[in-house]
Design goal:
With 368 residues, the chain is an alpha/beta fold. It contains eleven helices and seven strands. 45% of the residues lie in helices and 18% in strands. The protein has a seven-stranded mixed sheet, with helices on both faces. Helix 3 packs across helix 4 (63-83), helix 7 crosses helix 11 (331-348) and helix 10 (306-326) runs antiparallel to helix 11 (331-348). InterPro entries: MeTrfase_7, MeTrfase_capping, SAM-dependent_MTases_sf.
């Protein structure tokens, strides 16, 4: 499977779209907002730029895409007014893989820009948007061109399914029954990918530039720990049931593995220190319930059950990968079963996603 070609969140605004099923990810952005605010405030005060170039990496399509950017701009505007500085020009780069639904984002920009200029008031500078399709495991921007980079819930995706997973049969990710060689293959792929990511971003950020990254991760040092693998184990249960009923071919199931790695804080830190490009300001862990939905915020979900919401959230994320492997005829049935399995487990266990957030700046003797 070519991850760059296949991986994308469900586009559009329909029932199974990412736009309609990304409240958990939005909650994570809100939870980690104080870290982003601190980083952008320090960056502004350190560099006092006349124009500010920011990028969101793995922006996807939906309300979260512009949510982060608008929060960052609001913080800077407030600060510049407080300090009595002149207005800035904001350059915003929205990055994702080429299959992302950039069209829906672009269509929403005129309204968003109108709203932003109302909120920012007279005298604010322009916000100029660009889409940057491409993998963040390669160069995306010119050298020394960016002030600030943000990424949430994207960097756990690997550039490829690791090699050497032949003996992970019955599983679709790292699991309690995965042999050590599988866990090692996943970790080594994460190390290779994240080190390339850091090198590329170090080339693109300006001196004094900053970066806040949130991974879907884990607290435990055990990569097959339930806190990061369970959600995929439950999906494997649904798929295995369908294999045993002859609805899915066994060899298709055996050769399917999710290209993700959910790192611990120490694994993230270790790669950053090895690279030597960045100094770490913060490294924090937070948690959000699988079914942490605010029905006040989105009344339509108040009538649906937790299993439905969580299964739909996972469907918006994983459907294109599953369709690529198994075809689209089985998808509704997979998620009908997954919903039931999730409902069952949520009622018995405290199920959470763990978030690992790191805030850092480009290091070097030249930092102001
Ligand atoms: C779960 S979504 C998160 C979207 C958004 N940041 C949020 O918090 O709601 C992950 C996004 O990362 C993107 N992504 C994964 N691997 C990528 C890569 N190598 N380069 C760029 N984007 C990538 C996916 O296409 C997807 O849109």
């Amino acid at each position: 499977m070519e991850v760059v070609q296949v991986l994308r969140m469900n586009g559009g605004k329909g029932e199974t779209s990412y736009a309609n099923n990304s409240l958990v990810q939005q909650k994570v952005i809100s939870l980690t907002r104080p870290i982003t605010e601190e980083a952008i405030t320090n960056l502004y005060c350190r560099t006092l730029p006349r124009s500010l170039a920011i990028a969101d990496l793995g922006c996807s399509s939906g309300p979260n895409t512009l949510f982060v950017v608008s929060e960052i701009i609001k913080v800077v505007e407030k600060l510049r007014k407080k300090l009595g500085h002149e207005s800035l020009e904001y350059q915003v780069f929205l990055n994702d893989l080429p299959g992302n639904d950039f069209n829906t984002i672009f269509k929403s920009l005129p309204n968003f820009q109108k709203q932003m200029s109302c909120q920012m008031g007279p005298g604010a500078g322009p916000c100029l948007f660009s889409g940057t399709p491409g993998s963040f495991y390669g160069r995306l921007f010119p050298s020394d061109s960016l002030h600030f980079l943000h990424s949430s819930y994207s960097l756990q995706w690997l550039s490829q399914v690791p090699e050497g997973l032949d003996n992970n049969k019955g599983n679709i990710y790292m699991a309690s029954t995965s042999p050590p060689s599988v866990l090692r293959a996943y970790y080594e792929q994460f190390q290779r990918d994240f080190s390339v990511f850091l090198k590329c971003r170090a080339e693109e950020l300006m001196v004094g530039g900053g970066m806040v990254l949130t991974f879907l991760g884990r607290r435990s040092e055990d990569p097959s720990s339930k806190e990061c693998c369970y959600i995929w184990e439950l999906l494997a249960m649904a798929l295995n049931d369908m294999v045993s009923e002859g609805l899915i071919e066994e060899d298709k199931m055996d050769s399917f593995n999710i290209p993700q790695y959910t790192p611990s804080p120490s694994e993230v830190k270790s790669e950053v220190l090895k690279g030597g490009y960045f100094s770490i300001d913060r490294l924090e862990v937070s948690a959000v319930k699988w079914n942490d939905y605010d029905s006040e915020f989105n009344p339509s979900i108040a009538f649906s059950d937790d299993g439905y919401n969580v299964a739909n959230c996972m469907r918006a994320v994983a459907e294109p990968l599953l369709v690529n492997q198994f075809g689209d005829a089985i998808i509704d049935e997979v998620f009908r079963r997954y919903r039931k399995i999730i409902s069952d487990h949520i009622s018995k266990e405290n199920t959470q996603f763990i978030n690992v957030t790191i805030s850092m700046k480009k290091s070097g003797h030249f930092i102001i």
